[in-house]
Design brief:
about 0% strand, rod-shaped, 4 helices, mainly alpha
Length: about 170
C-alpha cells in the first residue's frame, strides 16, 4: 500500500513540478526577451539619430557648395545693386551652414562611437570634406567635383556605420 501511495504522490507531483519549471523558464525567457527588445530599441533609435545627423551634415556641405557656385556666378553679374544683395544672402547662408557643419561634426562623433569598425573612416572622411571646403575658402577657388566625390565616399561610410550601429550588441 505504501508503494501505491508513493506512486500516486509521484504521479501528482510530476505535473506540478513540470508546471513550476515551465513557469520559471517562461519568466526567464520573457525577461531576456524584454531586455533584448529594449536593447534593440536603443540601437534603432541611436542609429536613426546618427543617420539624421549624417544626412544633415551632407546637406549642409551641398548647400555650401551650391551657394559658392551661385556666389561665383553672381560676381560675374554686371548689375551691382542686385549683386551685393544676393551676395549678402549667399554669404549668410554659407555662414549658417558652416556653423551647422561644426555642430554636426561634433555630434556625429558622439553618435558614431558605436560604429567601432567604421568610426575612424567616417570621422576621417568628415574631416576631408571640411578640409576641402576650407581649402576652397582659403584659395577663393576649388574643385567642387572633388567635394562631390568625397561626399559620395562619405555617404558609403555613413551607410556602413549606420548598419554597424543597428547590429551592435
Amino acid at each position: 500500500m505504501t508503494i501505491e501511495i508513493l506512486k500516486l504522490i509521484a504521479s501528482c507531483l510530476t505535473p506540478i513540478i513540470i508546471l513550476i519549471l515551465g513557469i520559471l523558464i517562461n519568466k526567464s525567457i520573457e525577461r531576456n526577451k524584454k531586455f533584448l527588445l529594449q536593447e534593440k530599441e536603443w540601437q534603432v533609435r541611436w542609429a536613426e539619430t546618427f543617420l539624421i545627423r549624417a544626412i544633415k551634415f551632407d546637406e549642409n556641405v551641398s548647400v555650401i557648395v551650391t551657394s559658392l557656385s551661385q556666389l561665383e556666378q553672381n560676381m560675374k553679374n554686371k548689375n551691382k545693386s542686385e549683386t551685393k544683395q544676393k551676395e549678402d544672402e549667399l554669404l549668410k547662408t554659407i555662414n549658417a551652414s558652416i556653423a551647422n557643419l561644426q555642430y554636426l561634426d561634433w555630434d556625429i562623433q558622439n553618435f558614431a562611437q558605436f560604429a567601432e569598425k567604421n568610426f575612424k573612416d567616417l570621422i576621417g572622411k568628415q574631416k576631408e570634406l571640411l578640409d576641402a571646403i576650407k581649402n576652397i575658402f582659403d584659395n577663393k577657388q576649388g574643385d567642387l567635383e572633388k567635394v562631390r566625390i568625397i561626399q559620395f565616399d562619405y555617404n558609403k561610410i555613413v551607410r556602413k556605420a549606420h548598419n554597424e550601429i543597428l547590429n551592435a550588441v
